[in-house]
Amino acid sequence: MNSASSRSAHIVLIGMMGVGKSTVGRRVARELSRSFVDSDDEVVARTGRAVTEIFATDGEAAFRDIEAEVMAELLASPVPSVIAAAGGSVLNSSTRARLRESGTVVWMRAPVDVLVGRTSRGTHRPALANNPRATLTQMETDREALYGEVADITVDCTAPIAAVVRTIVQSVNEVDAQ
Ligand code: S3P
After folding, report:
1. Which of 34, 58, 87, 158 could make an S-S bridge to 17, C-beta 3.0–4.6 Å?
2. Backbone dihedral angles phi then psi of residue 28, each to the nearest 5 degrees
């Protein structure tokens, strides 16, 4: 359990690409009258470059460095927010340590089949350009323990968005009440 779980701390959504962190996060934020922020959007705002362009020009390692800086900034913000943390943000050990102190961390999960369908529509996921099913399957294997290490709550996100939003709001309220 994260030490900073309280009504005043952040709600951070983690999980694989395509699970619905941004869509669900926006709605959870609205329900709880909090501000919403997405780490990929912050990377773009900070660099003035698209995620795909950073991967292509500077490589994944450079993207991960920027992502870790952005996550540190977002998690340090005193404004209790809903934060959608991009799927790979947990790869960084400092980010994982910060996540554990940041508030309530919600691990959004869905089967790879669902992720494949949902990611076919996005444009900021260069890693999925070739064979998205195999890539997502491997990524999930590699990252499962890392998501589990920082999560306070795990939510099945196969259900329609409205139901997922309801479950997350309820779960966060339960954690806050403890
Ligand atoms: C990535 C997830 C993406 C984006 C980039 C890499 C990953 O964000 O940061 O394509 O490695 O899981 P979303 O999780 O918001 O799709």
Report:
1. 87
2. -60, -40
b/e per residue 146-161 (b: at least 16 CB within 10 A): bbeebbbbbbebeeee
Which residue among 66, 124, 136 is best mutated to probe the pocket of ligand 1, counting the most ligand atoms within 8 A of its Cβ?
Answer: 124
pTM for this entry: 0.94
The model's pLDDT over 49-92, given as tens digits with 9 standing for 90+, comes to 999 999 999 999 999 999 999 999 999 999 999 999 999 999 99
Residue 62 CA to ligand 1 center (angstroms) comes to: 14
Does any ligand 1 atom lie closer than 6 A to the CB of residue 51? yes
Strand order in the sheet with 10-15: 35-38, 81-84, 10-15, 103-109, 153-156
Using alpha carbons, select from 14, 8, 15, 1 the residue that is nearest to residue 32.
8
Query: Relative to the CA of 21, which ligand 1 atom is closest?
Result: 15
Cα distances from 90 to residues 2, 32, 52, 66, in angstroms, run 15, 25, 19, 13
Is-contact 172 35, C-beta < 8 A?
A: no
17 lines ligand 1 (CB under 6 A): yes
- The answer, yes or no, to whether any atom of ligand 1 lies below 6 A from the CB of 125, is yes
